[in-house]
Amino acid sequence: MDTKQKSWHSQSSEGVFKTLRSCANGLSADEATVRLATNGPNEIVAAKTISPLKLLLGQFNSILIWILLFAGGVSGLLGERIDAIAIFAIVILNAVIGFYQEYNAEKSIAALKAMTSPKAKVRRNGTVIEISTKEVVTGDILILETGDLICADSRIISSAAFKCIESALTGESVAVLKNEKTRPEGELALGDRTNIVYMGTSVAAGSAQAIVVATAMNTELGSIAGMIQNAGDSRTPLQKKLESLGAVLVWAALGIVGLLFLLGLLRGTNLLELFMSSVSLAVAAVPEGLPAIVTVALALGVVRMSKRRTLVRKLSAVETLGSTSIICSDKTGTLTMGEMMVRSLYVGGRSYEVSGEGYSTIGDVLFETHKPDAQQSNDLGVMSLILLGCNNAHLQESDGKWSVLGDPTEGAMLVAGIKAGGVQEEIEKLHPKLQELPFDSDRKRSTVIRSMPDNMLRALTNGAPGMLLERCTQIYCGDGVRSITDEDRKTILDQNTAMAQQALRVLGSAYRDFEHGQVDELNAGLVEQDMVFVGLSGMYDPPRSEAKEAVAKCLLAGIRVLMITGDNLLTAKAIAQELGIASVDAKGLTGLDLDKLSDDELRSQVRQITIYARVTAAHKLRIIQAWKANGEVVAMTGDGVNDAPAIKEADIGIAMGKSGTEVTKQAADMIITDDNFATIVAAVEEGRGIYDNIRKTLQYLLAGNSGELMLMTVCVVIGFPIPLLPIHLLWINLVTDGLPALCLATDAIDSEVMTRKPRPMSERITNREFFITMAGTGLLTGGVSFGVFFYMLQNGNLQIARTYAFAVLVFAELLRSFGARSETKPVWQISLSTNVNLVLVVVGSIGLQILSQHNEFLGRFLKTTNMSFRDCIVLLGLGSIPLVVLEIVKLIKLRK
Description:
Structural class: alpha+beta
Helix content: 40-55%
CATH topology of the largest domain: Calcium-transporting ATPase, transmembrane domain
Distance between the termini: 76 Å
Number of domains: 4
């Protein structure tokens, strides 16, 4: 179906329905499936495919590998066929291992990108469902609300105070008012098509329904896709630092190797042997697999995080997580269950209890344990009209469990309205919605205007009780409506306080009747005044059982948790105390209190404040900036559009996967799929573990390489024969640097990682302690090998000495990998069962090394001599010396 060239803005809604063969109830599931198969997924550019051939060829894109291949070619030409075959075989093996690592990392990252793809709400078969934006097709009916990203070009068919930000297409940052009115003027500029919404733009305010007229490359955004396809540098700061470190290591190693080459020439060493050894040493000295190891550690760590319900949108967030010192958390749905339920109603001067659980409509509204009488039922009917009529939530049932599609608060009000005797379908039929004035964080109210009998309109409003009372001049009582008095206001506010002290979130409800034309413009300033106050709804959202444990874990880890909520301060304090975030005398501030503080005053006082209530988007931004100005690394969670600025400003922006708007998710570094605070803490734990794994893998690689370099350097400087042949160095590089390093990079997280204070952002991964440990380890492994080489030279021939030095160096580096798993814990305190892969790799590699000294083919390949099993055991014991010494050093440090 060609949809791109049609002037949809000039057609009536009925005409668009007819052209697209759709209706107000949306497409059927079968028709949507057919259209998706015919027209393809709704995405601008197909996902970037992983080219295995390109990744494989990339393993040879290194100057050191080129030099090594050249050396292999020279060996072949000079008749050293075994050397040539060995070099080529090891280069290929290294390439295969590197390819395997990077291919799996690329697949993991691609899978995670797919998991974080945006969602859209559509109506199909008359039911509102949530689907991936890729599954949206022409003819679908989009349900759009504040904070949604618009996923396809669409013609509006109904709207309420609907505004969009179209800067992605027009460059104009001011929100544009949209409606469903037909524009028959013919061709119009894109910005003047006020009844069309476009892919890539977002909803700034209000709500609307729109029929999709174009998807994917047929959209306006698709036509200019080339302008937005330039991908930025996706490498993390750590990856960039390690690439710089790698470059320094390359030049340092080449300098040392060049010096050794000159010394060898002066001593009359065989030129070919010297050349081959220099090339091999250069390759062995530089951990060229380091970038791949880091990528694998990050990617597999991110996969592990996804299994703990955390989707990482930016890899750099993984590094920053380990330094997080402040977590600013929303209350509702994050620290609490997020399944709001109205527990108490206050209407007509009476308090009612609401029974039932969750979003199930099974339950009753009771007055003093009894069902309400006729008068009380009438009062509840007035209240239920507001609860149901000023509401955009939808209830849905799956496998006997009820859930809400939309805002959890509105879901709770919807259930309470039904329990109070209201019927949503009847309200929609008898009192159709004319306009909506959506909730915003400044007004703290939402209003829906509906038709009433006798040409009247009624504005139904829910909002913060205190601010709502300011707009009310009358009050609804059991015997009718009368003027509100100061005594009434005090009674209502006292009731509000009593509810809040019971950890209930309280909303007020009011209405205003007026005739058509009585109010010239239906905006909040004119409609939300002279209202009739009806009642209060007290909602309870129980704290998550796991959140209390997560908060305690944060405190142990040196991470401070703050509660930032739009809720009442008393309610926030009650929940914060229950979770252990705040003590009884903890200091809390409201948004009004914040307004009285200058930025400097807030910066000086921010460490004494734990709870922030009734705050706006601007307040949240100021809180984040104040903590950052004090040198803290801040994580900010949120779900609404008003959270997006603070999320973007924070060092780690965390969006809620269930309740979060698409705009908020796009601004975030991470998405928590279960909206659970404990998951955020688990992500911090994973972030710390990933950083530790990268650090210990880097140290293991560099320590091994420095040991080989020291051994070769000492022998050349003092005039000894070269202790290791090129094939030995290449074999060591393959066996000890490849798979063991990969196992370390994916090691299990230390159970005590959350008992340490946050790592300073300025701390270098290769600090003074890192280099001391690296040099000490290299000295030990190189020293043991030199001792064996020196001893065997005095008691045997050169080939035997090389064989023994080669074997003990392999054993030492493999055994050392067990100690490398922790910089502080002795090896016997770390269970081998938590890294079975490392055990298998070490045992297999040691077995292969022993076999090479008893197998004729491998012996010729590696240029080694036969060795008795007794000598193998002795060399294994000698090879354990570096591990034992390093473990003794750990114990000494622990005692200090």
